[in-house]
User: Fold this.
Amino acid sequence: MLAHNRIAVMHGVNLDQLGRRDSAHYGELDLARLEQSIGEWARELGLEPTFFQTNFEGEFVEHLHRLDGIADGILLNPGAWTHYSWAIRDALEIAALPAVEVHLSDVDGREDFRRLSVIGDLCFATVKGQGPDGYREALSMLHGRLSEGS
Ligand code: DQA
Assistant:
C-alpha cells in the first residue's frame, strides 16, 4: 500500500451534465457512474479518491487551495476552463501536487479553441480522447508517480 495515496478527482464546468451532452464526444455515462468507475479503478490500485465537481470557477480555485495536507495527487478535468482559466492555472500551481489532466473527448480533433490547455505544462501527463478509460490510465500514471516518492 502506498503511503501517499490520496487523489483529488476534480471535474469542472458542465461535467455534471454528462449523460445530456453530445454522446459522440462524451459517451453515455453520467457523472455519478463515471465517478463510480473511477472509484473502483482507484481502489484497485490502492488509491483513495475524493470527488469534487462545480460549475463555479472560484469554487474550483478554492478547492485547489484547500488540498494542502489532504491530497497527494490530482486528477482533473476542468472542462472548458482548461482552455482559458488563468485563475485555475495559478491555483493549480499553488497546489503544487502531481497532477494529470484528463479529457473524455479528443480535444485536438475538435474546434481550434480546444487545442490550447492553459494547465497542460503544470501536469505531468495529459490523457485525451479515450473516454472513461482515460481516467483509468491517468490513475495508473498517478500511482506510478506516487510510488516513486515512497
Ligand atoms: C472536456 C473537453 C472540453 O473542451 C469541454 O469544454 C468539456 C469537456 C472533455 O472532457 O473532453 O466540457 O474537458
Q: What stands out?
A: The chain has one domain: 9-103+123-149. The first strand starts at residue 6 and ends at 13.
